[in-house]
Design brief:
Length: 317
């Protein structure tokens, strides 16, 4: 058993919540029951004081330090599932995730996930937190993800993400005409009413998204997006806040809106594209052992490329 020290700050909008509830939002990689066990064992401090009661209320802004006991929470099953490995060495592995693949096993998705596939490729990943995964992509988002193969690499990559040293760039297709690039600097937290969703919330976590226009269409804009922070659903939430939700995003974009006078070919293409048009195209980081900066790129998947091709042929200005 190995310990890992995690630090975070209770959000302002968590005021009045139970400690275990607030901590579960901060450290979502771990189950609430496991977090409760660690709290009861005295593994968590608030503003430097050990707290052992999961029911204790929080006030917001407290500094949290959690000493994590690294051991498998559940037995995840290895599955012989094909994955696109774009780089692998003794310390890290980079995959190009396909659409429709959930990253972690959870209720309703215990098999067929990226973790199941990784454990078949590298059974030793079971000993690492979250099977070595240090950042996620949504189920229907495609593209590059890095996986740690050792505890040292995991810690190094987590620190890079926390200090915003990892370069993550995405390609996406947004609804509406965006005239120029810009930056969204808006905090993100759980939606105050729809707890499964995220939203721009005044008291949420700092979140910054930079975007550049790659190609303009009459009713859509093709963007390249760079994450400065990595909040859950950040790009989807920030673009929806701009009133330019991602094409194909039923959660933050609502029902499909077809452009006026669209051809049958374009209408059929849009209707058949049933996921958010978002692809993690570039990943750059400092290698945890060599300390050299290294990066990878992944071309858009066929469905996004086809959608852009149809728009270019019918709607480009």
């Amino acid at each position: 058993m190995t310990d890992l020290s995690l630090k975070a700050q209770i959000a302002e909008n968590a005021r009045g919540q139970r400690l275990d509830q607030a901590v579960a939002e901060l450290f979502s990689d771990y189950s609430r029951s496991r977090l409760q066990q660690w709290i009861k064992k005295g593994k968590l401090t608030l503003d430097g004081k050990i707290v052992t009661k999961p029911r204790e209320k929080v006030y917001g802004f407290e500094e949290v330090v959690l000493e994590v006991e690294l051991e498998p929470e559940i037995v995840w099953q290895a599955e012989d599932i094909s994955i696109d490995i774009v780089h692998e060495d003794d310390d890290i592995l980079v995959v190009n995730k396909q659409a429709g693949m959930v990253v972690h096993p959870a209720a309703g998705n215990w098999d067929g996930t990226l973790v199941n596939a990784l454990l078949h490729h590298l059974p030793e990943l079971e000993e690492l937190p979250r099977a070595g995964i240090v950042h996620r992509l949504d189920k229907e988002t495609t593209g590059l993800m890095v996986v740690a193969k050792t505890l040292q690499a995991h810690c190094h990559l987590v620190k890079q993400l926390q200090s915003r040293k990892v370069n993550r760039q995405y390609l996406c297709l947004a609804n509406g005409a965006i005239t120029a690039g810009g930056t969204v600097d808006q905090p993100i937290a759980r939606h105050p009413l729809k707890r499964k969703l995220m939203a721009v919330v005044k008291s949420g976590k700092y979140a910054v998204t930079h975007y550049r226009v790659q190609q303009r269409f009459k009713n859509y804009t093709f963007l390249k997006v760079k994450l400065e922070t990595g909040r859950t659903h950040q790009i989807r939430v920030h673009l929806a806040w701009l009133k330019h939700s991602l094409v194909g995003d039923p959660v933050y974009g609502g029902r499909l809106s077809l452009p006026p006078k669209a051809s049958d070919y374009l209408i059929n293409t849009l209707r058949s594209f049933q996921r958010q048009a978002l692809h993690a195209t570039e990943l750059g980081l400092i290698h945890p052992k060599t300390l050299q900066t290294i990066s990878w790129q992944a071309d858009m998947p066929d469905d996004m490329a086809q959608l852009l091709s149809v728009l270019s042929s019918e709607e480009s200005q």
